[in-house]
Amino acid sequence: MNDWWTELNVRETRIIPVLLLDDDGFYKTVKFKNEEYLGDPLNILKIFNEKEVDELMLISYRASAKKKKINFNYIKELVSVCRFPVTYGGGVDSLGNIERLFRIGIEKVLINSAVHSNETLLHEAVQKFGSSSIVGCIEIGSNWRGKRFPSYNSALRGFKWNLDAHVELLNSSGVGETLIIDVKREGTMTGLNDNLLVSLANKLESNVIVNGGVGVLDDVVKFQSISGVKAFGVGSLVVYHGSNKGILINTPSKTDLNRLQ
Amino acid sequence: MVGVISLDLGNIGSWESLLEELGLEYRIVDNGSLDLSIFDSLILPGVGSYDVAVRNLDEKDLRVPILNWVQNGGNLIGVCLGMQLLLSESEEGQGYGLGIIPGRVLSFKGRIEDKFLRMGWGPVKFCDSGKIIDRLYFVHGFFCDPIDDQDVYATAYYGLEYAAAVKRENIYGFQFHPEKSGPDGLALLKELLI
Fold it and tell me: What is the CATH number of the domain that holds A195?
């Protein structure tokens, strides 16, 4: 067999828009605060269709904190226009939720804060739905002394594990992919926290998606050169344009994307 | 009319919206009592673990109707786990697949240096025509290894070259997700369904 694939310049890296969903639309936040409404969700998703994004994450970012039920009908309406893979996260706390999300067209389901009250949920979900369909999550917060720990929903309450224990839980669950969210840099466009994220990525056995701080594509290129990570969750990069942060749904050009591994 | 087989695991909603976009009538097939002769094609989508899918296939009494459908020359398209179910068995579980295409489903784990789960976009090359489609979406940790090379319809590369698609008469299996692969995936499905 000839190595036909070596002759193609294949980009393995995925740039994944992370859209924060609330009752009536998509929002962009800074450290999960100061919400800014982005516009009509269906229009935004149709633009991402035209741009042929790699994947997309829909996160109902207040669902768990507010104990809100998943709005399956609304999510079905949104995902029905997407011709790319969609991951959903937010308020997922049972196998029944996950099954219903797949049924309405979601490809991957992210389980986050539910693991704090149900430590076996991740493992059970992987056993039933396969490691490629379930995404784990670590939201990294910090306390007033600067010590890092897994938070959830940007709240500094309710946590009971340290970071290593959380990593161990994810590794033992067999989950295929983990989203790492650096809460302190979310929406700041100040670049990725190299030390924190590389150290965590190396500890995780799964693939990782890093999120929090990407302002320009060079942030990804730089981080990739030291980490080898191949998936990046981005928000500001694809919803803002210019130094004044005017809302404009966009994606990096193909020429720029070809700079990635 | 297209029949979409539901094993209570697959991303059925994606197929519903896609078939609606293509203007095709469809019905969900979730038990063996439905008369399959009303369909022009059957799709076997797949998200989930192998053993759960095999168990649901049998609990829903779908195995025999699908095998009869194939024996009578029906069109069947298996996607991702659905493709893997076309083979005889899998390293992921203990259950038996449909055995329509003899072979085993193997794990990437221990066979490649990269992470065991392939996730993302990549090209495939079709064996007969040499045609390359360069942007299709993959998400899987196991891959099909048919016994007969003639069953390999297209290949892909992830640490090793493997079957990205299989074909035997009217039976197709795609390891990638054509329903989520943008224009290229849509074009591929149009060829088979319209």
Answer: 3.20.20.70
Helix boundaries (H) for B73-117? 81-84
CB of A76 less than 8 A from some CB of B: yes
Is residue A143 one of the residues assigned to a domain? yes
A108 lies within 8 A of chain B by CB = yes
Element (H, E) at B21: helix B12-21
Q: Residue A151 falls within a domain, yes or no? A: yes
Query: B76 with B41: CB under 8 angstroms?
Result: yes
Task: Kindly report the pTM of this predicted structure.
Answer: 0.92
Kindly report the CATH class assigned to B2-193: alpha beta
Interface confidence (ipTM) of the complex: 0.89
Are A131 and B117 an interchain contact pair (Cβ–Cβ within 8 Å)? Answer: yes
d(CA A6, CA B162): 15
Q: What is the pLDDT along chain A (261 residues), one digit of tens a residue?
A: 558 998 888 899 999 999 999 877 999 999 988 999 999 999 999 999 999 999 999 999 888 777 788 999 999 999 999 989 999 999 999 999 999 999 999 999 999 988 888 889 999 999 999 899 999 999 887 655 555 656 544 343 445 557 888 899 999 999 999 999 999 999 999 999 999 899 999 999 999 999 999 999 999 999 999 998 999 999 999 999 987 889 999 999 989 999 998
* Residue A192 within any structural domain of the chain: yes
Query: Count of domains in chain A?
Result: 1
Chain A's closest residue to B183, CA to CA, is A83
Residues of A in contact with B49 (CB under 8 A): 126-130
d(CA A229, CA B107): 22
Number of H helices, E strands in chain A: 9, 13
How many whole angstroms separate alpha carbon B152 and alpha carbon A181?
40
Rounded to whole angstroms, the Cα distance separating B127 from B45 reads: 23
Q: What is the pLDDT of residues B54-112, one digit of tens each?
A: 999 999 999 999 999 999 999 999 999 999 999 999 999 999 999 999 999 999 999 99
CB contact under 8 A, B180 and A84: yes
CA distance A19 to B50: 31
Cβ–Cβ contact B138 with A under 8 A: no
